[in-house]
Structure formats: structure tokens, C-alpha cells
Amino acid sequence: MTFLEFLLLSTFGYAALASPATSGSSSATTMTTIGKECKILFDGRVPQKMTPADFDKNSSIFDHQFVHGQNQTWAEIIKFPVGIPPSMFDIPKNAKPVEVTINDNSIFLPGGDPPQPQVGFRRSELIPATNNGSDITVQGTTTFHWSIRNDPLRPLNFSHEYHPAWHETADFSTSEITFLTGTPFNKSFDPTVRDPKTLRLAGRQSNSPETTFFQTPFEFDVWHNFAVTLGWTDNTLTVYYSKGIAPLKRVAGPAFNDNSGGGQFHTGVFKEPTGPLGIDVLHEGFQESNLNEGLIFGGIFIEDSAGGCVSLFPSVLGVL
């Protein structure tokens, strides 16, 4: 038994690992828990040898072109924090945490004629390179995993609204899910928020108000682990959550959510401006100068949840 196995089993006991079996797809590339085996559709866990400059290459596991400031490179944006332990789903892959940062130059220039810089936002987001809007990650039933923690050296300004993760429809008109923190730009859209330092999982963004399915305090200096299962045909949503290296537990759903529109999964830092309601938030609003903000991510992967298969805990007794 390895030290990691001893640590995890001593902390949670075998019963925590041996959750009830659920049949799922099997593949040569799998994430397993005791009694479960789920096919990995995209693996965004960052290898130890990967450098920030590697994110700018065609061979990157994330899209090397999107989404970041028009005059930036991923080599400037990506950091690898020192002294931060890996998230629980990174451990079996010997993967490392990755930090996504924003600064004053994090202004995205979308396509268009003429193109208009999104000066209202500051944004840097990783998108799976294989996620083209209609690929296998938006078919059947799939689960999106990520872990997140703060960086005390690059703190957020919680007077703003942030989207650290979301799934945007293929036509860019809305999002099936949005993961938020900070002060809502429009509080009527999220009336349940009393403390901006919370992590919140909301449903379809075009709903007014949005449905917040789950929220939890954004406790600092600890990993927050999330998984969201989306049924692309039956329009269902289920949320799982844990802290540290505790197994994921279902905290919301299955519930109805409009999952139409396919699209792409974003993880990173998307910062809304502040300002009065009614402004064009893409091109108006206030952003402070001398920005140096970031969020640390780990355990990013997407799995096939056919038959109800969801990874709640990493395999430490087998080889991935």
C-alpha cells in the first residue's frame, strides 16, 4: 500500500471508497472508483512536464487560441503555483495545479466586422481543444469535473461578479450552466446571494432570474471539488461537491435544466465590470487598473455518464 492509499483510507475508511456500483462505459482510458468505471471524454489534468508556453502550441490539450487578451499569450497568463498540493483527481495522474490569471491586458477581441474589443470584461479561459460545440462531450449524458481554490497572492475583488467556469452554447447566446462567485452584477438574477464570497452553480443563464442549484462558502486555502452531470437529451442537471480530498456527494438534482444548444466548457477567470443596470457590459462598465488576479484549478476532465456513471473519488487501488 502506498502512502497515498494509506492516507486516503485512514482519512475516509474503505466504506467511503466503496460507493454502490453503477454500470458505465469501459475504455482503455478510464477514471475509476471502487465499483465504477467511467469513460473519459476529455482529460484536462496538467502533466508535470507541461510548461506555460506549451499552452500556446497546436498540440496543447486546451485550445491554444482561446480565450485570452488580444495581445497576450498563454505563456504570460498561465502560472504553476508553488507549494499547493494537487487536487484529489490530479493525484492518480501525477498532475499539477494550474493557475489562470487576468491583468489589464486581458481584453478579448472576438470575430466580427469590424471586431469590437470586449473592454467591459477581463477574461482568460481554458477550453478543451477537442470541444468544438457538437462533439461527444455534449451528447448523451456527460459529467464536467473541476477543482478550484484561491491564490492569496492574486486575490479576487469580490465587489465584482466572476465566472470561474461555465458551459456556453454553440451559438454564444447563453450558457447551460454558470459557476459564479463575487457580487452579482444584477442582484435580481441571483437574489439568494448574501455573501459575495460564495461559490454558486446556476442553471441556464437566459432564465430570469437564474436558478441557483447550489452554493457554498468560498473558504480559502482549500480545494473545492465540483462535478456537474448534464443530460443533453432529457434536460437534467445534477451537482456534486466536496472539499479537500473528501469524496464527492450529490448536493442538487437531478433537476430540470434547459441543456439545449451544445457548446463548449470554459474554466478560468471571467470578470464582469461594475456599473448601473442597463449598460452594455461587453463594452462598458468599470474595471480597476493594475489587475493581478488569479484562480487555481485542478482535476479538470469530462466523462461519459451513460448508465449513471459518475466518478466520486479517484482510484488509488488501481492503475489509471
UniProtKB/TrEMBL annotation:
<feature type="domain" description="Glycoside hydrolase 131 catalytic N-terminal">
    <location>
        <begin position="40"/>
        <end position="308"/>
    </location>
</feature>
<keyword id="KW-0732">Signal</keyword>
<protein>
    <recommendedName>
        <fullName>Glycoside hydrolase 131 catalytic N-terminal domain-containing protein</fullName>
    </recommendedName>
</protein>
<feature type="signal peptide">
    <location>
        <begin position="1"/>
        <end position="18"/>
    </location>
</feature>
<dbReference type="Pfam" id="PF18271">
    <property type="entry name" value="GH131_N"/>
</dbReference>
<dbReference type="InterPro" id="IPR041524">
    <property type="entry name" value="GH131_N"/>
</dbReference>
